[in-house]
Write a structure and sequence with these properties.
The chain is α/β, with parallel strands linked by helices. The protein is built from eleven helices and 15 strands.
Length: 389
């Protein structure tokens, strides 16, 4: 099998697969190849937090032109995987000089499949791009082509709990990968002070309680001819039995009232409202929470994905904005570990704090950096005197 992921998440995806019992793990670029049985294929879709797709390769071959692609795809016995009465769709991914258009490669592959059915049965299956019974993946890199079954269907990043989102939302896979890379212990307090749709908070809540990432959706393998419903039910039941309680605090802020309402709706849909609290608040007027009866905060993790520039009027506003982020963290979140993801690499240099870790990632097509800042504990009283509010 091949689990596809985002750039920079390959190692943590491999760790997730090892925990599930995968064998012969091979790390690739934006993907991890591995071996396992049908149960592992089901578990991969249900449990993996940093995977986008789980592909089951059927045939790999060299291809030099469109006729070779047509013949090779047509050589696969497609009626072993779906019937003429069912629907299918093809996703094409190409790179190299032979096939420069992924849609054309998908079209030639579609022709080969429908022609095989027409030759054998006198009729052809229909294409359904939205909810097909079988989704096929054609990947061509240079002259090497791999034809796979897509066991997931829609991206695994579409968990099913986020029906609404704000402008420039963070994907579920991106949020989960950030949390895993941060090394959060899943016990200490966690704050997202610019929470938007609430994605980082929800992924942290699911992770802390060991709730499978795929608990809210269905997968294409459930329509396959060899689908084992009894095995799938057992795997789902085992996933529910492994859930654990969370005793920490997950808190989100956003200064946009609409964003807070959207985040709350998503939190409710994910059934984590008992563990996650969001409120309308300006980060620059916030400070680390202090428990009742305590003199100072006990520390924790703060993670944010601040605007890169698109949400502010002009790019020149970003440098003072990022400076203010660093200043506020230093004076009002001492004792915490802060992680900032940003695609504005220039503005990120002006946070004014020394990062202890730097990780290169991509948020969609945008190159980003995720940086860690260790906010050493100091006197809150002195900080307040130094920085009037």
């Amino acid at each position: 099998m091949v689990a596809k992921t985002l750039f920079g998440f390959e190692e943590i995806l491999a760790e997730e697969l090892r925990a599930l019992g995968a064998e012969e793990i091979e790390i690739m670029t934006r993907a991890v190849k591995y071996k396992g049985d049908k149960a592992l294929l089901y578990k991969s879709n249900l449990h993996l937090r940093t995977a986008i797709k789980i592909l089951k390769p059927l045939l790999s071959f060299n291809v030099g032109n469109e006729d070779q692609l047509y013949r090779k795809v047509k050589s696969i016995k497609w009626d072993e995987y779906f019937s003429v009465a069912e629907t299918f769709a093809i996703d094409g991914v190409t790179s190299g000089k032979v096939f420069t258009h992924s849609k054309y490669a998908a079209l030639k592959s579609k022709d080969a499949i429908v022609d095989q059915f027409r030759d054998k049965y006198g009729e052809r299956p229909s294409v359904d791009l939205d909810e097909p019974d079988l989704r096929i993946n054609i990947h061509i890199a240079g002259i090497k082509c791999t034809v796979s079954l897509d066991s997931s269907g829609s991206s695994l990043g579409k968990r099913g709990y986020k029906l609404q989102q704000v402008y420039a939302p963070l994907s579920e896979v991106m949020a989960a990968g950030m949390i895993l890379l941060s090394g959060w212990d899943k016990k200490s307090d966690f704050i997202d002070p610019m929470c938007g749709s609430g994605t980082i908070l929800i992924e942290a809540a699911l992770m802390a309680q060991n709730i499978p990432a795929g608990s809210f959706r269905h997968f294409t393998f459930e329509t396959w001819k060899d689908f084992d419903e009894e095995l799938w039910n057992k795997i789902q039941a085992a996933g529910k039995a492994q859930q654990i309680p969370f005793t920490g605090t997950l808190q989100g802020y956003d200064n946009n009232r609409k964003a807070v309402a959207i985040a709350q709706a998503n939190i409710d849909r994910a059934d984590v409202a008992d563990f996650v609290a969001v409120e309308q608040q300006d980060f620059f007027k916030s400070e680390a929470p202090v428990a009742e009866g305590e003199e100072e905060n006990k520390g924790g993790m703060i993670m944010m994905n601040p605007p890169y520039g698109e949400r502010l009027d002009e790019d020149k506003d970003m440098i003072p904005f990022y400076k203010e982020i660093g200043t506020h963290l230093k004076h009002f979140y001492n004792g915490w570990d802060a992680w900032i993801l940003s695609g504005n690499l220039q503005a990120l240099k002006f946070v004014g704090l020394r990062p202890s870790r730097k990780i290169r990632l991509y948020n969609g097509p945008l190159e980003c950096k995720m940086q860690k800042y260790e906010l050493y504990r100091g006197s809150k009283k002195a900080a307040k005197q130094k920085l009037p509010r």
